Amino acid sequence: MRCLMISGGSAEDQVACRLYDQLKRLNSEITVSVWPLFGSGFSFRAYGVPFCCEGFQGFSLFFNVTFFRSLLGYIVCLWRLWCRRKDYDCVICVGRRFALLTSVLVGCRRIYYLPIFASGGGYYFFPMFFYVVKAFVRVSYLPNTVMTALCQNRGIRCMFLGNPLFEDVSDTTIDVGFAEDDVVVAFLPGAREEAYDAFLYFLNLALDLDKTGVFSRLRFIMSKAPHLSLERLLDFAKQAGWVCGSRGSLLCFKKEGVEIVLSEDLVGVIKAASVVVGVSVTACERALDLAKPVVSFPGFGDKIGYRRLKLDQAYVGDWLHVLPQRSVSYIIMAIQRALDVVTRLETPLQPTRLASEGIASHLLGDFQSKTLG
Fold first, then answer.
1. Which of 4, 41, 110, 354 would disulfide-bridge 88, Cβ 3.0–4.6 Å?
2. What pTM did the predictor assign?
């Protein structure tokens, strides 16, 4: 079995790696090549998975030199894979619309689709996208039961076997020494190039939130994607007047009595939070799946993620507050409403375990039954 994996982002890379690991465990003879559409694909490199094409960085920066260079590279890679489409028995697509449309354009007739959104994914029912899924995807492995039921009623071949994005995370915690009655705000700047701008914005936002005096015991923690440059973040912080220090084993920034703890453990950061404030769509959806209320607003790259969260808001209600602009007064009101949601929480959502194993097993079984049939 020769397989091509197409991944649509850093979080999708992690899911694809888990699926790759399970596929190799179940069938050691399977051969897999990957195309991480965005970023460096560092997760795949750690697993030693061979690349058929490199990822790109410029699609979020519209109509500049980087964008057009990336677009040209994308077209070249797409043409190269289309010419070699008979070398692959199937395509496993992990991502959203762009990743799926890329999988269709590659030309392989058997596509397995893993959309990893957590909070609903209203875009799944856009007429054109719905047609593409129904016409070209053999099986969709959807991330929740609600979406699965809706899609099955509309004739899409799909099933729910868990969401591999959230598996094996229930025991992940970080000890930052916050008190139980502290209001902990977790900042999620994301993993792409615009995360540096978001990082600097969140530094200033922490000062603004603290100065309002609305919350008496306010604490801050921020996530950092492993591949982002720590030296660059330190430079930003120092230029803004922050002093670098430590809190236990973690790095922190201090200024005017405000302290922000920095950690690369995204799940640990989310679990330590009372409320999440983020511009990264995937990270925000992960927080929702871990039963954390989320406040979001337009980020510093394209507005696609912002519009997607607006669609997700219809599915999760008060758990997600999508603001029209980056306004401190709006953010404060949204945090207050989000904290009120927590007080009404009865049963936290539980992360899914070993979803990738079930998906890999079904995928192999489906492929073999179709081949034998």
1. 4
2. 0.64
